[in-house]
Structures are given as C-alpha cells and as structure tokens.
Amino acid sequence: MSLASETIASLRAKLTRKEITPVDIITDLEAAIIKQNPALHAYLSRDFDSAKRAAESADITLPLGGIPIGFKDNINVRGEPCTCGSKILAENYTATYDATVTTKLRNAGAIPFGRLNCDEFAMGSSTENSAFGPSRNPWDHARVPGGSSGGSASAVAGDIAIATLGSDTGGSIRQPAAFCGLVGLKPTYGTVSRYGLVAFASSLDQIGPMTKTVEDAAILLNHLAGKDTHDSTSLSQGSAGVSPVSDFTANLGKDIKNLRIGLPKEYFAEGIHPQIRDRVQQAVKQLESLGANIEEISLPHTGLGIATYYILAPAEASANLARFDGVRYGHRAIGTNDVLEHYFASRGEGFGPEVKRRILLGTYVLSSGYYDAYYIKAQKARTLIRDDFSAAFMKVDVILSPTSPVPPFRIGEHRDDPLAMYLADAFTVTLNLAGLPGISVPCGFIEEEGKALPVGLQLIGKPHDESTLLRTAHAYEQATEWHKQHPR
Amino acid sequence: MANHHIDIHHVAKLARLKLSDSEAATYTLQLDHILDYIAALDQHDLDAAMPTAHAEAVFDVWRHDEPRPSFTNEQSLANAPKKSQGQFQMPRVVEE
C-alpha cells in the first residue's frame, strides 16, 4: 500500500521505528499525485524537488518530523505561490514570508508541501469559484468536493495528501470534510493565528486541520494553536476563559459516559436530505449506546444565521479586498491613464464573479444610508445567535447536527443561483458568528446515481473546549468503520 | 420582481470595480434577490440586542513601541507589478 494513504500517526510510528524514511513518503506521494491529480485537480502546484530536499534533511526526532502537510492556496509559505484561487494573484505573486502556522509546523518538523485549490479568496462552497477550475470529489468525479477548502479535502480523501490545512469562515473546512468523508476541525476563534492567511472576513476566519482521523486532527492542532504577537486576536492557552491544554490528544480514548449532547431542533427541521437525517440519527443512537445522554435543545435564532452571515462576511471582505490595488502586488491593468482608472480596471480584470458579487454586497451594506439597516442589524443578530449557544451550553457539553443539509452536488448544479448555494451553509455559519469550535466526522454514506457519497456529522463545542469535542468525535469514530472507507 | 433594488453603478464606483454592462445586469438581478432574502432580519425585533463585532471580546491589544525586524525594501517590492528606483510605481495622482 502507498504511504500516501496513511495517517500522520501511522507514518510517525514507522519513521521512529526506522521502517521508512521521509524521502519514501515524498516518493509515494509524488507517484500518487502524478496518477490521481489530473482527475481530481486538488493541487494547483507542488515542488517535488524542494520537498525531497526538505525530506532528506528532516529531523525525525521532532513531533511532526518528516510529515508533509498540504496547504490551502491562501496560506503563505515563503518562496511559494499563494493564488487564493484568483487570477489577481496568479501572475506574479511569490510569498515573501511564512504564515505563523507555516513557521509552527516547520518548527515541529513538518514539510509544507503543495498548494491546494480553493474557491477564489475562500468564497464559495464547491471550488467552482476557483479561477483555475473546480476540484473533483474522489467519491464521484462528477460532483464537487465542497468548499471553499475543496482542494485540501479532495487531496486527503483521494489519498494524494497525508493531511492538509484549510481555512473556515462559514464552514469552509467542515463542509468539504463532510462531502469527502474526512475529519475537518474549525478551532475556536482566536485559537490559531491568522497571520499569513489571506484575509476574507477577519472576525470569522480560522485555520484548521483536514485529516483522515480525529487523532491526526488533534496532533495537528497541538502544533497550530497558540498566541501570536502578529495576530492581536489570537489567544494564549491558559489566558482568561481559555483552559490550558498542552496536548489535545490527551483525552482521546477516554469514554463519553454521561456526556450531555444536545440536538438543536432547528437543525433537524425541514430542508434536510432525508437520508442525511437518517444517517445522523443513527449516529445519535451510536453515541447514546456509548453512554452519552441525548437531549433536545433549541437555538431559536438559527433562522437568522444565513442573512447575518451574508451581511457581515461580505462587509468585512469588501474592506479586506480593498488592498488589491494593482500597485503593491497582484494583477495590474495595462494602458490606464489615471489612478482611478487603474484601480477600476485592475480590480475589474483580476477578480472573478463571486468575489465581485460579495465586494458589491459588502460595499452596499456598509454604504451611507444602509449601514444601520443592514450592518448594525446583523451585528445585533450575531449577539442573539451567540446568546442562543451560551444558553444551550448551560445544559449540554456538546451540540450535534448534520454538517450539511445536502449531499455533494453535481458540478454546475448551482451555477446561476448564488442564493441556493448560500442557503446550504445554514448549519456551519452560526459557529463562525459565535466563534465556536466545530468538527465534522464521517457518519455514513448515501447512494445517489449509483455512487456512495459521504455524510458528515457536526459536533459543536463550548469556546476553547476542543478537547471534549475531539474526545467525543474520537469515541464515535472508533465505534464505527466509516473512516476506514476509501473511494475506488 | 424583487422588493429591494441595488444601484449597482453607484456601489461599483464605491468599490472601485469596473463592470461590463452584462455583469452589471446580472449582479443587479442576483443581489436584489439576495437582499430580499437578507431582509428577513427585519421581521425580528433586534432593538434590545447589543451589536457584536467580534465573537471574542479582545480590547486594547498593544505591542511595545520598540523597533523590530520587518520586511526589507527588496522584500516589500518583490511582488510589485511595476517598480522604479526602489519604490512602487503607479499612475500620476497629482495634477501637473
């Protein structure tokens, strides 16, 4: 079996027993990528030679020594491209610095390897908004892998990556993890530094791991989390309200007896694919048989989630993307005479349709006369959504829902209807608005047109309680066989 | 027919985005539709709620006002589409 299909934990065990070398891993990855990537289009670029050189000098005594990690193409790795799936950064951009997560993974011995496709500036749920074309779902190549971290998901599920990083602003780690049958973790806001992640919506963005197992997610979180002087919103372990966790793997394997799990009735209402509802209900029974206490709860302002998110996220995006002025980096229009014409043309030529839509929407809700009617109102709704969760967490330890109400859709299915695509984010955006951690774990398959398509279960935790979240996800995973399935 | 209507040319001007006629028509249609959906917020009484800007309330984060290493001139200019004499080059801003 190719080393490309293995996990971080299993490769580390083999490396420390000296059964394999880091170069063996890169060699197997290279073979798998050459064979599979043309069909999956998960990687936008990769540099085998520099990865091999890094592997040759890797220090396997370090905790992630010799492990290649793939990067969503919106996280900076010095000397590599960082296109964000956009034409505006496609031509002449090479990262001049490492993101904090890159530095931290390097310090732990990992090898940053490969740039993974995503929706342009992480705006989308399918990778169809990438300027370089969509990635494919390894379970059915006619379907999307989800998004926006779809390349990161497709690569791990297709066994052409060991583990990858994604970023999650409204579900962009969890939804593709669900669509591809993986584990995807969005940490509590502030847990992981955003320095070097190209900003989409700064009050919502978090970087997180996309992995084959819950254990791998916990291992990676150990090396991603932490206060960073370059990101003033990052929080240190042990600071006010943050329980000090030195090892997120410490509670894996512990039981979940008497753990209180809440099922929000609003997340099981109409609009869910019936088979997804069925698989998630079976998972609930499984958790109950493991000793968890299940109770129905209510998050009454759930219905405000999408409207709130699609005001606040575009508003922040319109401000963040103002930096693309065609002067300091990125696409520059040719033949313009004055500075305004230069801005209009450079941005008009460089950004794709979904990014333009969101910049326009964000600019509109922040503009004079509409600010109070939209932006302030959405910020108030955000408070109510957060308060719902705070009240619910007085009663339960973990909240459970489907990750996505729909299975992976066919490429092109929602091309002309952006609102239909937005509505499918209903179960994921609320966590970003409230800053909560969430994890998607595989909970079975449904059959569509003769293909088995993965279903994801979302577990939502209290702020900074990733440990309980990971323990719960791990207990469920180990009691099932879903994570052992591979696409053919 | 949408209840909300976005003045796309005005907004595009604010956003410094050049749109073709067909883009303007498409985005108007799509954004009107989205604004109709977003208006759902009006059906809720939000007056009593305080606005939340950030899920995690972090205030007054200061760093020490001390010099520290930063990008060199060369690094800063490394990705500039046009540069000259160690500076970014852009169209003239000041009238002659």
Write structural notes for this entry.
The complex is a heterodimer of chains A (488) and B (96). Chain A is an alpha/beta fold. Chain A has two domains: 3-262 and 281-298 and 387-484, Amidase signature (AS) domain (Amidase signature (AS) enzymes), CATH 3.90.1300.10; 302-384, no CATH class. Helix content of chain A is 36%, strand content 14%. Chain A is built from 15 helices and eleven strands. Chain A has helices at residues 8-16, 22-40, 48-56, 100-107, 150-157, 174-180, 214-224, 274-289, 305-320, 339-350, 353-366, 371-392, 418-423, 429-434, 466-478, and strands spanning 43-45, 68-72, 111-116, 163-168, 183-186, 206-211, 260-264, 293-297, 398-402, 438-448, 451-461. Chain A has an eleven-stranded mixed beta sheet. In chain A, helix 8 (274-289) links the parallel strand 7 and strand 8 (293-297). The two termini of chain A are 14 Å apart. Chain B is mostly helical. Chain B has a domain at 1-44: Orthogonal Bundle (Histone, subunit A). Chain B is 31% helix and 4% strand. Chain B contains three helices and two strands; from the N terminus they run αααββ. In chain B, strands 1-2 form a two-stranded antiparallel ribbon. In chain B, a hairpin with a 2-residue loop joins strand 1 and strand 2 (87-88). Chain B starts with 7 loop residues before the first helix and ends in an 8-residue tail after the last strand. In chain B, 17% of the residues are buried. The chains are: A alpha/beta (488), B mainly alpha (96). Chains A and B meet through helix 9, helix 10, helix 11, helix 12 and helix 13 of A and helix 1 and helix 2 of B.
Summarize the structure.
With 488 residues, chain A is of the alpha/beta class.
Fold topology:
The complex is a heterodimer of chains A (488) and B (96).
Chain A: H1 8-16, H2 22-40, E1 43-45, H3 48-56, E2 68-72, H4 100-107, E3 111-116, H5 150-157, E4 163-168, H6 174-180, E5 183-186, E6 206-211, H7 214-224, E7 260-264, H8 274-289, E8 293-297, H9 305-320, H10 339-350, H11 353-366, H12 371-392, E9 398-402, H13 418-423, H14 429-434, E10 438-448, E11 451-461, H15 466-478
Parallel strand pairs in A: 2-3, 2-4, 7-8, 7-9
Antiparallel strand pairs in A: 1-3, 4-6, 5-6, 5-10, 9-11, 10-11
Chain B: H1 8-14, H2 21-38, H3 73-77, E1 83-84, E2 87-88
Antiparallel strand pairs in B: 1-2
